[in-house]
Every structure is written in structure tokens, then in C-alpha cells.
Amino acid sequence: MRGRRVRRLRSPGLASWVLCVGLIASSPLLGQVDLGTDEQRATGKVVYDKYCSQCHGDTGAGDGYAAPYLRPKPRDFTSGKYKIRSTPNGMLPTDDDIRRVIEVGIPYTAMPGFPELSPAEVTGLVYYLKTFSSDFEDPEAYLPALTTPPAPPFSADNVENAKRVYEEIGCARCHGTSGRGDGSSAPTLVDDWGDPIRAADLSRPWTFRGGASREDIYRSISTGLNGTPMAGFEEGLSPEERWQIVDFIQSLAGDSMSDPGYASLVTARAVEGGIDLERGAELFEGAEPALLPVLGQIVQPGRSFHPGVVAVEIQAVYDREDVAFRVSWHDIQANRNGTNGPDLVVEEMSAEAGSEDEGSFWGDEEAAEDEGGFWGDEAEDESDDAGGDFWGDDAAGEDDGGGFWDDTEESADGGSDGDLAEFSDAIALQFPRSLPAGIRQPYFLNGDSQNPVELWFVDLGYPEAPEVWEGRGSQALVPSDEDAPFVAASYEDGRWSVLFKRSRRNGQGIAFDEGTFVPLALSVWDGFNDERGSKRGVTAWYPVYVPPMESPSPFPKMAKTAAIVLLVELLIIAWVRRRHRPSAAEEAPA
Amino acid sequence: MNWMIVLPVLLVLAGLRFVKPSMLGWAAAWWIAVWIIMDFGFAVPVPKSVVKEFLGIVTLALAAYVSSDPQRWAEVRDPMVAFLTERRHLPLLGLVAVAIPAAVAASIYLEMTAPAQAPTFGRTVHPAPPATLTVHDVTHDMQTLDNPLRSLETSDPEAFAAHLEEGRRIYYENCFYCHGDLMQGAGMFAHALNPIPTNFQDSGTIAMLQESFLFWRVAKGGPGLPEEGGPWMSAMPAWEQFLSEEEMWEVILFLYEFTEQRPRALHAASGGEGH
Question: From CA A527, how far away is CA A548, in angstroms rounded?
């Protein structure tokens, strides 16, 4: 361990780093070591033991109680590698960098922000974290932060050029042509610890670990993410080019960079001309897309703590006869080989099995060192060649990573199935068996004994053979012999699009009557992530509203009501005037 | 509370005391103030139906107040009668007579063409627990059920600390994904749940409850909620399927320890609510 760290820090790359960064941003702080006072570190330890050690471990090694279940894994502070930094790639973070992550957290990971901590507590915690790695004692390991200039406004004109740069320097190889994290190398990526890691989905900036603002993205592009394959492009790209890439990412994100705009309702749209799945996405034009967040199925054995799918988008259309749904989601790759099923048994990953995994990984110290060495060398290459030859080297890294990935696959399930079974992607729409009469709904995971659900299940390895299942709880799932819905599935550019069509009324199944809200929940299996059976991503219940085909015109009712109100008004006025005629008023008794 | 709206309204109401408006003006000011606070004053919007109902009650209350005294009634009645009868008000009266039906028609139009809203369900904060609770084939009387580990706090602090640490492990292996590191109901999956996970830091949650109530909720989860006690969409699992009784009591100990709250004492329930 220690040998590796020292090697990285003393690698010849460092000299050139110091040289070039010193030219850009020379600072009197260079080389100044600040480890705080005993008192501050003691304050930090109290905070750490209460809030941090359950994931990051008592000794900062990233091995707390929750660690076996989390991916990305909790940071191993003994490594001195911090992902989100303002300093050049491979360097230590500044105190403010660590402070920022403590205060705002890391989106879409288990790392929350801790805004409640006082400034003194955060400062103490920063100093305490630094005690876990001796790197922080080395004055040579510090380099000043790169500056992020204020963001220029978004310019659509930049997108074209940025897309060219994006392809040229190889971003698309991991992040994919449309930025959906589905590049050809994406499935091979591992971090410095040999754990599989995913390239960010650039079309969903709210999931960015380093933050979703234009400045955050610029910083992440410039500094890279230590410990991951994401390199820094402070040298490879001019500031203008980096801002252009930011514009490109913003163009992928659509309306909002920081807000996913999750829906609370799916509204079906009435369509003309028959529902024919051949029409594809065009059939669903005009149907409001509802983006629904996915959580891991973390209840039933075989729990899924890091589902491969973050969100699904759903649209619904209907006519007099049929109802149809379009479900789409971003997926790192289409897994059509292998099989899947809602009832496949997954053994529960016990904490012990998880740590054994860890053990075998770390036992493979040789490989871990290679990996570390590789990225260390990489930084060197980059600074020497100014980003020129850089991706050539990366290809070598992929080969390296490939071997690694296989290991990981094997151990990912606590060694319970080392046969490297392949699982295909799959999707299921879940509805209650009948519309709930009251407000009680079936339990969202496959229903419960009193409130059964039906699943419209498609194994995307066999999209021509969709199935209907009936669930009365996760232990009581049975195939139903009802007519299955029609299904059409396609995968393009990092996105699955699966269309379902069924009669609005179908035997015992749920009916889609006009004017009703039909509860819908989804399950999605990412075969690449070994998901099957209870190991899957799920959504909570969401209502699907089926509006009446002919919505009545509001005008007759408006006219009628206005006339009645006017009549009542006139009657009141007439009555009051009659009673309070000036002459009569004088005579009337009080 | 949305204080940027509520405070100015309260200030205006306080100011009315000095301005001394007519009784009609006073009643109108109160009615409008209540409407603004109900409709815009809350951080979490109040459902329209509740606002309507509440304003109906306020209307009746104001009517009862102004009509209960002849002088007050005259103060309210006279300006209205003058408006309806005197010739000089005629143009304005005509305008109002047209404006009211027009406003009603407009609201009908908006209502009938509004995009559909997801149906909302109320949330019973603390549904009534059953009289008896059967967990792992053992039936407990909820009146007398208490955390069997709680007494160790004084009798054997070392054993108590060990149970607490177990509770901590269980929480971070099972619960924190939804209820969060800080127990505020903001775990990494919380954004995907509705209703949102309970915030244990809120003084209105576990501090108001006995440990037996938590034991019931942990053991039976969302599926075990009574018919009259929502939320019925709760994703809370029935943990009795996965945890032993002792583990559930341990995690309950940890909830109170971490949030620095105390459970409501057992005698408080039988001894009355008042404290």
C-alpha cells in the first residue's frame, strides 16, 4: 500500500506537473502543510465517529458497516485519493475541496451533505480525515488549485464544434455518442481499487458526482476524478474548448441541469388511427413523458443497493380498444444474451460474504498495484504529450481492466454463483390485479397476500415472448396464462425503448377505464449489473390517468352557471331595493 | 410556514386595530387575510378543498359575529344597502353584477381544462396501534410491551453499549438507504419514495412515541398499517421477515441514541396525555 502511494507521488510525472501548473497558477501556499491542531483533530474525530465511520470505517479505510453494499464504495481515506477536487489530476485536494464535499455531499451516491455541522466541526473533520493518509504530510504532494473562471453563458453555437472535440479526444469512448454513459469502453471501466465504475451519463447532469453547475462541470473536466478513469483535461483542452464541452453537455441535458423534473403522474393521451406498435416512438408523440426515479429493491433477499438504472421515462396512449405504454431508460449496453425472470432466486449478500470479496480483492494486491501504477503513469503521459497520444495508452488500460472486470463479476454476488451466468436486461410493468376500491394499494414489491398485482414482464433477450405474472408477495409469484401484451423493443445509442400494447379490458386483468387513475410501478433489470429476480431497480406506485375520450366542452356549463349567478344577483338587488326604497325606509320600523 | 407572506398579513391585521375600519371593512379584511394565509402562507401547499372548507367556516363565523349584535349588524348592512340602492353607485353596481358571473364562469373554465393532478392521500401521522402484536409467533400486549434492552442502560451500561453498536450496524446495513445518515428521512433512495421516509430528527416523531409503537412499525411495516391509518403506499418493509426481535429492539435503541431523543414513557399513555 504505502509503497504504491510513494511511487505515485514521486513519479517523474510530478516534476512536469509542478512545472506547468506553477506557470499557470503560482501560489505562495505551494508546499505548505497544514494539519490543524490536536484539539481540532479531536473535534473531527468525534464528528467522524458519529457520522462517517459507519461507511468509511473506524480507520478511514472505507470499510464501515455499509461499505459492502455501496457502489461507488465509500472513499478509502488512507489512499489520499479524493475524487472531487480543484487541484490537478492525481494531486491531493485542498481543505476547501474536502469541506465542500462534506457540506454538499455527492449526488446519487450514499454520501449525503452535512449542512448541520458547524464550521468548526467541519474544519476539525477535514484535519482528522487528513490524518488517515501520510500523503498530507508531504509538502511536495500539494499543488495549488486550478482556477475556474466565471462561466460564460450557454451558447448553442458552440455545440457543433464541441461535439467534434468530444469525439476527437475520445470522450465518446466511455460516455457514449449521446453522452448516455454507453461508450464502447464503458463496460470495461474499473476504479483504482479494481471495482467496476460507470462513466457518467452526461445527459443527466444532476447525477454528476462533482455537481451540476456549469462551473462544477468545467472543474471536473479540468481536474478529472482521482481514483477513476476520468482524466483531467486542463492541458489537453483550452479553456474555450472546455466551456464548449460544458455547452455540449448542457445541450444534452435539456431543460434543467440540476433538476431531473421527476413526475408524480402519468397522463395517457387519446390517439386516433389505431394503436399499432409498428409506428414506434411516433405513436407516442404528444403524450407527456413522465420521468420516474428508480430505487434499488433493498427489502427482499438478493437486495440491489446500486441498481444500474437511475430513472425510467414512461408515456401512455389509448384509444377505444387498446392502451399502450412506451418505457425508455438509459443503459450502459444492451444485454440480449442470457435469460432473466422476475422469480429467479438470488442469494442474499451477507456482510461477511461482502467483506470476503473485499479480502480476495485486496489479496490480489499485485493487480491493484498495477492498476494504481497505470493511472500514475497515465498522468505522466498526459503532461508530457499534452494529451496527444493519451488515448492510445488508455486502450492498454482497457485490456487491463477487462481482466479485472471478470474477477469482479465472479465475486459480485458473494461468490454464490461463480459460474458467470449471463443475465439479459428485462422490464416489468406492475399494476394492481383490480383497481383498488379504497385507498389501500398492494405492497409495491410484487403485491401482498390480500392485494395481488400483475406483472407485464419482458425478458429483452426474448422480446417476442412477453409474459404475464401474478404476484401476491415476493415469495408468491406465479406465471399467469392470460394473454400477454404485445411488445416491441429496441436499443439505440444507449437507450432502451420498450413498447407494450394490450386491450383496455382483458379478462381478469386490470382495466383501463376512462376517468380512472390506475396505479403503476415498474421493475427494471440491468443484465450488465447481474440483476435478476429480486435484485433489480424498482419504482414506487405512480397513478396513470386515463382521461375521458371526449372531454365535455366547458362552455355550456360556464354559460348556465353564470346565468344562474346573475339571476340570483338581480333578485337580491331587486329585493333589497324594494325593502329599502328611500320613502319606505323612513316608514319602516327599525 | 411561508413567513414572507404570513408576517405582512399579520402586520396588516395588527394595523387594523389602529385604523379602526368599518365593521364591513374589518370582516372583509379578516376573510381575505385568512384566505391568503391558507392559500399561500404554508410551505407545503394546503389542498384547495381544505382551503374552501375552512373559508366556508370563516364566512359563517364572521356572519354570526356581525349579526349577533344589532349595532354591528347595522354597520355591516347599511353600506351594503346603500351600494345596492343609491343611484350614484349604479355604474359600479352594474360592473360588479357582471364581474361576479364572469369570474365564476372563468373558474369553471380553468377547473374543467386543468391538467389532471395525481390524487392525494392524507397521511395519518401516528396511526392507532393494535391491542396485541404477534411477532415471530409471540403475542405481546401493546399496553405493557416495552424495550427489554432499555433497563440495561442503568443496570449494565457495557451490555447496553454493545446492543447500541449492534443497532448501529443494523441501521447502516438496512435503514439508512431511505431514512438517511442523519435520520432525517433523506437517504439515497428517499427521492424515489412517496410518502417520504419518516424523519426521526423531527421532535414530532419518535420522541412522541413509546418504543412499543416503533417495534410495531418496524416489525409490520407498510403492509401492516391498519385500514384507517395511512399512508397505504408506504414502502416500509415488514422487518420481522428479516430481523430477529432483539435486532429490532437494538435498532430502536440506536434511533433514540443517535437523535438524542427519549422515548415517551410507558406510564404516560395510561396516565393521560397532558404533559
Answer: 39
Closest to A74 measured CA to CA, from A346, A297, A354: A354
Is the Cβ of A559 closer than 8 Å to some Cβ of chain B? yes
User: Closest to A561 (Cβ–Cβ): which among B104, B119, B172?
Assistant: B104
Distance of CA A544 to the CA centre of its chain: 24
Q: Is the dihedral of CA A35, A37, A42, A43 positive or negative?
A: negative
- Is the CB of A576 inside 8 Å of chain B's CB atoms? yes
Question: Tell me, what's the ipTM?
Answer: 0.78
Q: Does the distance separating the beta carbons of B81 and A112 come in below 8 Å?
A: no
pLDDT tens digits along A382-398: 333 333 333 333 333 33
Q: Amino acid identity of A147?
A: T
Q: Please report the DSSP string for B94-135 in residue order.
A: HHHHHHHHHHHHHHHHHHHHSPP--------SSPPPPSEEEE
Q: Does the pLDDT at position A420 exceed 90?
A: no
Give the residue among A555, A545, A548, A567 at the shortest CA–CA distance from B108: A555
> A39, exposed or middle or buried, with CB in 10 Å at 0-12, 13-18, 19+?
exposed
C-alpha cell at A405: 472486470
The helix (run of H) or strand (run of E) holding residue A327 is strand A322-330
Q: Distance between CA A550 and CA A572 in Å, rounded?
A: 38
CA atoms within 13 A on the CB side of A289: 15
Which one of A55, A448, A561 has the shortest CB-CB distance to B105?
A561
CB contact under 8 A, B105 and A116: no
Its CATH class, for the domain covering A266-346+421-546, is mainly beta
What domains sit in chain B, N to C, each tagged with a CATH number?
Answer: 3-113 (no CATH), 132-270 (1.10.760.10)
- Report pTM: 0.79
Q: What residues of B are in contact with residue A542 (Cβ under 8 Å)? A: 118
**Amino acid B47: pLDDT:** 81
3-class DSSP state for residue A300?
Answer: coil
Residue A426 and residue A536: Cα distance in Å, rounded? Answer: 9
Q: Could you tell me the three cell numbers for B163?
A: 446492543
Structural domain boundaries in chain A = 2-255+351-411, 266-346+421-546, 555-587
